[in-house]
């Protein structure tokens, strides 16, 4: 199998993402609208650095989506106008984040924010029209080209399964080890151990001073505060709440996204001829090769839990039951309040997606450059896995 990231992310500028904003800047409003232009930096990392340097609480900075780290991306932020905000840049110097006059985004690790104007409300997750991707696929050998164009015809006819991509699973440090599963069982000590080490065995767990000394060089400030809390004698649940809420919610998103992906994979395998493609953590994604009921599939929405949005498709209902049984999901977990948040909530997500404005901008014997637009919440890497590896 072709390794995806030997093809599409050799350089940050090979993977360009532009957020299509839903808000237009105006002269007045209660929030600043800023453009964030970054490379080799995750959205959360950029927001945390901005928060620390500008002394703005993390929860006050709004954004519409999480953009890839190893890429050149443009997206938008909001900050209440009660804070002092200015256009600025940040980069790495001597292994530390520092403020800089300029950053050569795409060539350097770092980011810049530019004030565009004002808006009347905060940006929340999903507040965007979509994302435009410009992606260079390298090492485009002859054997890959045939596969690529064959799979592209399938995508043009039937779209592709709308799986959550690997960015959604940044909190999963080892296979099937989800922090949320510990939280749902009330095991906050296990949740913290999983957060820091995944399923790895650590002989000094509980020796908080040693833990701090060992991990602190690589930790975020809030992670250091968490361990300091344990050192002061805080119980695991209270220490866990030191993590910012958006970080805690990521544990919920990761587990629910995994269950949703597994549901869609099982559904595809039940109904259509398919190819199974390696994903992260030894997981698999299955892509259909032909669809006999495209009108049905195109409209199909898969619920996260089904306790509010009941699946009408009998095969989907059967698959959801199978997946939940396999992973030990209990009904009492749905809409459960724990660790200062509500988890395992229900919602709907489209089963498939069709890229819009798909164009081949350049092609040679060594590379091809693609451009396309996807709706909010859909992942270019999920499409590329099929085009390159299917």
Automatic annotation (TrEMBL):
InterPro entries the record matches: PsdUridine_synth_cat_dom_sf (IPR020103), PsdUridine_synth_TruD (IPR001656), PsdUridine_synth_TruD_CS (IPR020119), PsdUridine_synth_TruD_insert (IPR011760), TruD_catalytic (IPR042214)
EC top class, as a word: isomerase
Residues of the TRUD domain: 159-354
EC number(s) reported in the record: 5.4.99.27
Keywords: Isomerase, tRNA processing
Catalytic activity, reaction form: uridine(13) in tRNA = pseudouridine(13) in tRNA
Active site: 68 (nucleophile)
Task of the protein: Responsible for synthesis of pseudouridine from uracil-13 in transfer RNAs.
UniProt-listed NCBIfam families: tRNA_TruD_broad (TIGR00094)
Similarity comment: Belongs to the pseudouridine synthase TruD family.
Protein name in UniProt: tRNA pseudouridine synthase D
Organism of provenance: Desulfurobacterium pacificum
